[in-house]
What we know:
The structure holds two protein chains of two kinds.
Chain A: H1 2-11, H2 19-41, H3 48-51, H4 53-63, H5 70-73, H6 75-106, H7 114-129, H8 132-143, H9 147-171, H10 175-182, H11 188-227, H12 230-239, H13 243-272
Helix pairs in contact in A: 6-7, 6-9, 6-11, 6-12, 7-9, 8-9, 8-11, 9-11, 10-11, 11-12, 11-13, 12-13
Chain B: E1 2-10, E2 16-25, E3 30-34, H1 41-49, E4 56-64, E5 70-74, H2 80-87, E6 90-93, H3 105-110, H4 119-124, H5 129-141, H6 157-170, E7 175-179, H7 187-200, E8 206-209, H8 213-219, E9 222-227, E10 230-235, H9 241-248, H10 269-282
Parallel strand pairs in B: 3-8, 3-9, 6-7, 7-8
Antiparallel strand pairs in B: 1-2, 1-4, 4-5, 9-10
Helix pairs in contact in B: 5-6, 6-7
Amino acid sequence: MDAALSKKELAGPYKRPSRQFWERTAIAVSCLVCIGGLFFALEVNPFVFITEFDHVSNLVKDMVPPKLGLLFQSKGLYDSIGETISAAFLGTLFGGTLATGLSFFAAQNTAPSRKIRSLMRTLFSVERAIPEFATLLILIAIVGVGPFTSTLALTVASIGFCGRLCADAIENVDTKPVEGLEVLGSSRWQTIRYAILPQVAPSFVSTLFYIFDVNLRRAIVLGYFGGGGLGFELERSKGMLQYKDMLAYTICIIALVLLMERVSDFVRKRILNVDTHLR
Amino acid sequence: MIHVKGLCKKLPNGRSLLSDISFKVEPGEFVGILGASGAGKSLTLRCMLGLVQPSEGEIRFSFRSSSGEGHELDIARLKDRQLREMRKEMGVIFQGGNLVKRLTALENVMMGRLGTISPLRSWLYGFTDTEAKEAYEVMKSLRMEDYASRRVGNLSGGEQQRVAIARAIYQKPSVYLADEPVSSLDPKNARKVMELLKPLSKDKPVVGVFHQPHLTAEFCSRVIAIKDGCIVYDGDPKLSAATLASIYEGEEIEGVAQDRPAARTVAAPTTYETKLRPNVATS
């Protein structure tokens, strides 16, 4: 950027390149053509909401009012909320612990060798590429349906993502303290313990809380595919055409996600802000 | 004792950064290395730390380890494990401290002896109470006990630099090496740091890279000046203004005519003297 600027300055007063206008027009037109083509190819028809309005209104009639009575009468609802939260929490705990440990082998400055580093990085990206419900469906074949399966699937799903973020955090560490410890004769593991770990700990904590937020949403989706919890209830009520129950569950899900986001944010700040007055 | 013999460092493209640097530092000496920026003074020190491998020459480092036996090593030829063993005997004070900002000052001081602690213990247990006590004593002796439990990131630059010195002292090394320990500090803190460094040279050699001729003149017992990778002066710390001028060649000299825009070139001897005196008087 700077180099370009200084070149321009050297060239003299700024002249608007005449080509720019046509270039921009061409880009805009081709974007519009692409979007239109996609609409056509996917048979997207925005008018369906108007032509099929009675469908929509019937569905709304079936759904409203949501059967919020479920909150007071069924113990099952709270069980399934508990299942969802604990699947997300345990999945994050197991997967996150594994990932933070493995991330030290995937970061350039801490990996024992270049080969191990690229091996770990590849493992993480392959891992990230597997959709979590695919893992779940395989696991269901092995351990059966239930929240335990979704815990396992979330553990597997967390490793790639969390490991990648943590490894990046380790690579971005300030090297001065590392050098400072090396010159007083500390071994590599000691350098990691005292110079790198204190620096990356806050970003590890943030990453874990972020993964928990993601996992909570994933746990609901996995429930739908047979992982138990709120998603499973949703699937069941949909199957029995109980749309009023379905809307109640959906409201529960939204409330739960928002609430847990607040809670995890609060806890995260509590952990990290031991030293906010520094910043 | 450190004996640097014929130290050379060349870049792969053949440019020479250091050529034939030789000097000897005995216990009781406080050697200040001066030179314009890019002259090679920090590089010399980094070679002595084993952070940079010199192209030629040797650095003989002889010391008595804690068990009492004498050692003599060539730093330029050491490999991993030996290098680590040797570094336990070197107290290093960097510009800006190189401390771990998120840990407390006391923890940073305790890290001085990491080389003698097994990695397993540092992961599973940490430091012992006796270590903490000893480190605290060191901090107390430097009158820093007030901020022992504060995070280093919270401390000012001068305080951080003193924590770094406390760490080096706690390490109980055979030699102290300081890379621009006062460069980032204001004059008052710079003096404080120099006052801490000077007594260290009573029984151990101290080598420091400095940018402030007025401070080396006052505190050091000997000055080595490097220019374009060669030693151009070695001897009495009170350099004449003419020598200083030739060392710095047009560069601004810190502490001499800092706040005078007109004094771009090296000031005349009288200016040097008058500028120096108020500094001494205020301390």
